[in-house]
Amino acid sequence: MSIDNLEDVCQGVPMAEAAPPPVTVTERLDVILDAAFRAFATYGYRRTAMDDIAKGAGISRSTLYLHFRNKEDIFRSLAIRYFDEALRDMGAALERPGQSLEQALLAAFIAKDGKFMEAVLTTAHGEELMDAGFSVTGDLASAGEARMVQLLGDWLARRPIPPGLGTAHDVAATIMTAIKGLKTSVRGMDDYRAGQARLAALFARALA
User: Fold this and answer.
1) 29 to each of 68, 89, 108, 133, how far by Cα in Å?
2) Dihedral Cα 139, 145, 147, 153, nearest 10 deg
3) Which sequence spans correspond to the domains of the chain?
4) What is the tens place of the pLDDT at every residue in 129-148?
5) How confident is residue 21, by pLDDT bands cut at 50, 70 and 90?
6) CATH annotation of 75-207
7) Structural contact between residues 189 and 121, judged by C-beta atoms closer than 8 angstroms
8) Distance CA 151, CA 54 (A)
9) Minimum mean pLDDT among 6-20, 39-53, 134-148, 166-180: which range?
């Protein structure tokens, strides 16, 4: 908002009422991370600058540096948020009542993706974002994927596993590896979703 516009809005309003509501640190971090995600999807990891992120978040560079050391720090924070949200959404999807095993698996696969896979498969910088994910957040990805396997394995352990397939967590690890492999073999978002549906059907039949 420009100074002129701000004056129009505030005209005749006491300053205490015109002041914006207080923003918590958590809210500000979410705004910054949302802006960073948009910038990375638009410009790619290499071309995105701290200025781009600050402008997208509506804050100054100096304010941005109060929260994050550099672009890598922001990208890693995005990865942490992604895995936390993915675990939460996967759990909710698996526990949704009235689903078949196939429906529950597919819902969990889709919930796991969040906004990240859409950015990877529908923007010009998807491959670069994947590369940055491996190089900048590889340790976080390994830990996050292990948490996903644990979550899915715990859920599968509540149902009988057919003989010869190993433990519920063995099956969960195989499922998550198969889903991960889709990223490198599909031609777009529709193809990716179709692949997820096929895998959900295959694993549901194997576990029946």
Assistant:
1) 9, 20, 27, 20
2) -150
3) 75-207
4) 999 988 999 999 999 999 99
5) low
6) 1.10.357
7) yes
8) 36
9) 6-20
The answer on pLDDT for 4 being more than 90 is no
Q: How far apart are CA 121 and CA 192, in angstroms?
A: 8
Longest dimension (CA), the chain: 76
Give φ, ψ of 59 to 5 degrees: -130, 170
Q: 44, 131 in Cβ contact below 8 A?
A: no
Checking phi first, is residue 47 left (phi over 0); if not, alpha (psi -120 to 50) or beta? alpha
* Cα–Cα distance for residue pair 200/79, rounded to 1 Å: 25
Ramachandran region of residue 100, left (φ > 0), alpha (ψ -120 to 50) or beta?
beta
**pLDDT of 1 over the 50 cut:** no
Report pTM: 0.84
Higher pLDDT, 123 or 157: 157
Contact (Cβ atoms closer than 8 angstroms) between residue 29 and residue 67: yes
Task: Tell me the two tokens of residue 7.
Answer: 């004056």
Q: What is the dihedral of CA 148, 193, 30, 92, to 10 degrees?
A: -50
Tokens for 63, please give them: 């304010």
